[in-house]
Amino acid sequence: MKSFSEIDTIAKRASKAVGFSWGIAEEVGKNIKLLEMFGLPGLKYLNHYFYSGQLNKNQRLTLISTKNISKIPYCPIFSGISFFDQINELENLKNIQIENMSYPLLFLPFLSRASEVIGKKISFKFESNNFLLNFNQSIYSNFINKDILKLANLIEIEFIENINTFNQQDWDNLYKLSTKTFVDESDELKKSAAGAGLTDND
Amino acid sequence: MNINLRDPKKIMKLSKLGCFHQSKLSFLRSFLKEFKDWKYNRDLFNLDIDGYGVAVYSFSKNKRIYSLICFANKIDDDERSDRVIATKWDAAFTLYDGIPSKKDLDRLSNNVPKQEVGRMSYKELTLSRANKSMRIFNHVVECLANGKQPDKEKLAEVGYLYRTTAVYGSGKFGLADRFRVKNRNEIFGPFRLEMMLVYLVRQFTFDQVNHIAKSRNPRGAKELDHDICRNLGIGNSTGLGMAPFIVNHPTLLNNWIEARESVLKKIREIKNVDKKSIDIFKKCLKKSLKNVFSWSSNSEFQKTKITNLIKDLNKFIKFFEESSVFDKEFAFNEVYLWAEKNLNDECIEYIVSMMMEPYDEIVDQYIYKMSSDEERYFNIPTTRTIDHLRKIIEERYSDMLKIDFSKKESNKNFWFISKNKEEPRLANRYLDNGSELEQPLAIARDISKLYKRISNLKNSLKIGRFLIENNDLRHVVRRAFITEKFPYAEIQDNTIGSNLMAIDMLRLKLSYFGAVKFDPRSDKWLRICMFQGAPLPNDLKSFDEYWVYNSLN
What we know:
The complex is a heterodimer.
Chain A: H1 4-17, H2 22-37, H3 42-52, E1 67-68, H4 76-85, H5 87-90, E2 95-102, H6 108-118, E3 121-126, E4 129-134, E5 138-141, E6 151-160, H7 168-178, H8 187-192
Parallel strand pairs in A: 1-2
Antiparallel strand pairs in A: 2-6, 3-4, 3-6, 4-5
Helix pairs in contact in A: 1-2, 4-6
Chain B: H1 8-11, H2 14-17, H3 27-34, E1 39-47, E2 53-61, E3 64-72, E4 91-97, H4 102-109, E5 124-132, H5 134-145, H6 152-158, E6 160-168, H7 178-181, H8 192-216, H9 226-230, E7 233-238, H10 243-248, H11 250-268, H12 275-293, H13 300-322, H14 331-342, H15 345-356, H16 360-367, H17 386-396, H18 398-401, E8 413-417, E9 424-428, H19 443-454, H20 463-469, H21 474-485, H22 502-513, E10 516-520, E11 526-530
Parallel strand pairs in B: 6-7
Antiparallel strand pairs in B: 1-2, 2-3, 3-4, 4-5, 5-6, 7-11, 8-9, 10-11
Helix pairs in contact in B: 3-8, 5-8, 11-16, 12-13, 14-15, 17-21
């Protein structure tokens, strides 16, 4: 088995070799390691992308807007770098659509890291694949053991507001149960508790 | 009194860093301290009469066990090479996480001796190999087999039976990634597992000579004398592979240097230095002279350094014996200021190391600050502005900006990864091929380029926007923002200039390991010694923590 450190190094060097700057290559190294740590086939995708000949045919997505349309596929690495670098501006857009992206899985780690930066979960969808990126701590997904997807016709990104997954009723019910671990305090003990008998206006 | 930390622009010059010496902060010393109450055991020793076979040693405490697995192999003299291009070694080692099973030993016996071309697993933590110092090894075996102890003077010339030629860790060749073990308290400090491997290898070298001698002469052979063992260390040949490490790990470098600088500051701020501390300082200094006098090298560069060090140390001893410096308040500050005014860097840094000796209570709190969670600082803060970046560069990199990179000599070298061994190397940009594949280690040049590039840009421009068209300099934008937080993260020199002494980079790192007897064999590689004078594993529980100055050699 290859270690994550080896994966990081080889992905970084390979990225430099195909023409990315060292700074971007460093990002790719970290990203592929991240994908592999999450159990996603990052190295396989990168290898396939670099040998597919698509890299030089893809275009860069620099300034990202709500709808990004192009007949020429976008490069997932340059697009990811732009997304990550602009994340603080992009989160205000709520939803982003990108048409035509090569090897969309390689775009994902930039989103995962961005989720950590802005402190919001991000939903990422392409074709029938859904990913919920949780602050770069975990990824919830239905993407399992699939063939390499060379092109996503449409990518949908949604910034999820920090809201709970449950309603007030769920909370109240559980709280009620939790109070069963509490003990009634005697009057005597109440008197000796912190601040008891004194005004707190001093 | 508030003493300022020393200025990174002075301390982080390569000529200064190349004068650093081992100290109480050094990893092999802190490793021994941390493991002194661990149980040591030789679990397996299955060598044939010539000393070839397998051995296993372990350190254990509670439920944690680390096992060193040694494979001693027969090689021909013409196959023995310390260079990284070697493919066979006298012995090969791995540190295993737990107790290896028979199956593990079989698997590892097929891989560990192959080193870089073998495959390790996440159960192995570090990997190394070593060659015998043939003249010493044979001499020791011969003497012991004849019922005599070896010639101490002969041993002193070398100081070890074996020298390692590489120690790998952190995920190399399939070894366990750092993240798997980073939360273990006992190995929180940097390079603890590498130190453990080297320390246990040292014991193996003693057991092996005893075993061969006994096999040759079962009735008459002697065991290597305990004190002689203690005064033998493990040698190491180190080349350029180590140099880029300190550039590639800026926050870690910062934490090492900052620990040393903070300890020095605190010691200089002590108002009343007690007699006990003065005595320890003087005792260590005087005892250490023996090590300096026994330090030999054929390198003119190093010989000059040693001569100057001895000259300066004599000057310093005369100073503190004739002056009343230790009667004054803030005595160590006075000592430091005098040293800075009157001595060369080699001796100043030597004295700084010595000043730490009496102060466990200061040093210990910094030992635990010498690791780094590097990933935390990887992301570039893209909402910051060009104004911020410019100010950081002007403040942190002002000396680098003075280097004229339009001159040929400022660009003479380039760092690359060798195709043969995938190891870092240095070459001449104007004579050698491959500069287009240069590694991103020319920080001064690239920072200068970045500074020029942003010179006419609007202060309010966000870094995220700047990077859209300037990703070729992304690596140094990242570094600048790291250096903003970590003032000692950057070598304040030109790492590709014609005056570069790469050996200074090696010396810096090795001083933090705790190496002694730096012996440069060229400006690109050197030999050193580790653990010379250190207690043997069975003596760890009650060892003298100033052991490093007790060497008889």
